[in-house]
Each structure stands twice: as C-alpha cells, then as structure tokens.
Specification:
158 residues; mainly alpha; Four Helix Bundle (Hemerythrin (Met), subunit A); DinB-like domain-containing protein
Length: 158
Amino acid sequence: MKSQIEIFDRQFSFLHSRSNELLKLISDDKLFQRPRELNQTYQMFSCGEYILRSAGKIEQTFGGITTRLWDDPFEWTLPEELSTAALIGEYLTEVERTRLKGFSLFSSDEDLRRELPAPEKLRTIFEILIETLARSEHFQGRAFAIFQMLSDEKLPRV
C-alpha cells in the first residue's frame, strides 16, 4: 500500500506536469488573453493568470511549511513580471523545487498529522495539503477551460 506522502507527492507532480504541458500549447500572444466577459458571470482571468494562481497556491503552502512564512506570491507572479510562457515555466520549476524541499521534510505519514499555524490557526499538514491540492487543481481546471474557449487544440493528456 502506498503511503499518503507518496500519493500527495504524485498528485502534486501530476499537477506540475499538466501546467507545463498546457504552457507548451499556448502562444505568448494568447497567454493572457481573456474570454469575453458577461455581466452575469464571475470575473474571468486568462490561462496564464490561472496557471500562476495554481502555482502560487503551492508556493505559498510550501513556503509556509518550510519557513513558516505564508506570504501570498501575488506580487511576484503578476503578468507584468512573468509575461511569457518561458518565464512562467521557470517559475513553475522554482515552485516545484520549493515543493520538493517541503516533501523532503516528511519522513512518514505521521508527519502529516503535525499541526502548524497555517497561517491564522493550527491545522494539520494533511489538511493543508488537501486544501492546497484542491485549490491548485481548481485554478488549473479554469486555465484548461479558458484554453478551450480560445483554442481548437486538444488539452494535454498527462
């Protein structure tokens, strides 16, 4: 039976791979293109913005786990700073390194039961990872949906 750590590691790795595969399909001129907004819908962002939000949530979580700094990476993940697929790809690589550093701190599933101030109240690492995975996958799913609105290409299969 696989450990919970292995399952989380695999899911985060798949998330990283899917974002990179999607980036390969998007041209820089469409990366931050937004679909037509309608008054009755929520605000829509671009593929690039959703990919950055997905990765940013992971960076925030693992920054918190490794250094106890739960900074929102919003400022350094603005489209003005990361304006091309190549720059976003570099950011994804940096986030993956941070995630792997965090996972290196876990030696057994028991570690997932430890509580951390995350950032406002005590929560188990397990809870933090579940929420992070869900939110990151949600943002990635939105990126895929926007991609389908703007392109006739098939989504990447990873």
